[in-house]
Design goal:
Blueprint lengths: L1 H20 L2 E3 L2 H7 L24 E3 L3 H22 L2 H10 L1
Antiparallel strand pairs: 1-2
Pfam family, one: HEAT_PSME4_mid
InterPro entries: Blm10_mid (IPR032430)
Protein name: BLM10_mid domain-containing protein
């Protein structure tokens, strides 16, 4: 069970790190709110190919804050650094494999 949890944390870590430290287009909150409406009130496919001019598009960017960068560093130190250090001690890896 513990190995399963550890594996799931490892699988989700790249996505968490990407959200914390990457610059990306932040979705318009009003669009997100519409997605929670019933399909009878808002059908998203009607807007997928909607024409817009470049002057109508206003992008809002997510730029990582210092708190997000600090949290990413904490996560790296908590999960990644310890595992890398284990790679430098092969005798410890063999013991861990026999336990699993």
């Amino acid at each position: 069970m513990m190995m399963f949890r550890f594996q799931k944390v490892c699988e989700s870590l790249p996505f968490v790190m990407g959200n914390l430290v990457c610059t990306y287009v932040d979705e318009d909150p009003s669009k997100r709110d519409k997605l929670s409406l019933p399909l009878t009130d808002y059908l998203p496919v009607r807007f997928w190919a909607q024409k817009v001019t470049k002057h109508d598009v206003q992008l809002k960017w997510h730029i990582p804050s210092q708190d997000e960068i600090d949290l990413a560093n904490e996560l790296i130190n908590l999960f990644l650094i310890k595992e890398i250090e284990k790679l430098n001690k092969p005798q410890l890896i063999k013991k861990l494999v026999s336990i699993l």
